Amino acid sequence: MTSYNQLSPPKGKFTKSRTFVDARGLAGVRTVSIIPTTFSFDATSRIKSPQDRALVSNALDRAVCVSLSDRYQIVPTGQPADLTVRTVVTDIVATNKTMAGVSTAVSLGSSLALPVGIPRLPVGLGGLAVEAEAVDISGTQRAAVVWSKGANSITNNARVSEVGDAYSLAANFGKYLSRMLVSGKEPKGFDLSLPSGQRMNSALGGKPKYAACDLFGRSPGLAGIVADKVGAPPEWTDKQPKTPTQQASKF
Description:
Elements (H helix, E strand, L loop, with lengths): L14 E7 L1 H4 L4 E4 L3 E2 L1 H6 L3 H19 L4 E3 L7 E11 L3 H17 L13 E10 L4 E10 L13 H20 L13 H7 L17 H10 L13 H5 L3
Parallel strand pairs: 2-4, 2-5, 3-5
Antiparallel strand pairs: 1-7, 5-6, 6-7
């Protein structure tokens, strides 16, 4: 991040954040470029698998790209844009795969025998810490956020993967960052607005509004919802971006 000087004091208990938003500086933005999320040395050392790290970064960037598409034109990475968004995963707490499997088995088993399933066991939960900023074409910082959140046993389903929790939290952060950029202010509470048609289409795994978003793969759609409920690893259903070789094979 180019500067931490304008960030607010830390806020929140379960989701901790420090934010800065220049609403006037964002007012004239029409085009946005998204640089693929990177990992700090510490975060990389905690999650050794490049494939697992890609799941997290793509989930985050995809959420940002699709959400910002409601208001801005998303241009390919590297092309000139009014605003450039860049994000770094600074830390990850890996999900305990064994405990996630046990928790899923208990929850699914109880749902068959009881009117209400038993919530996820509150052990072995993962977490995610991220920092992001948006700079204008001159390099001036127009928005920034430092954010961290741990999974909980009520709203986060257990998935048998080291990045099971980080995967869902990454998408949460992506939507949080997008709300901040679109509204020009710090997001508060839940977003109760109805999703647009293009966001619904993308959520179901459809083609994004702007081709630049395909760099981050596509949502797993209904298959992902089912996989989340039964604790399947996210890589089973996540639609990762096509490689240049795969893209060339279409022509």
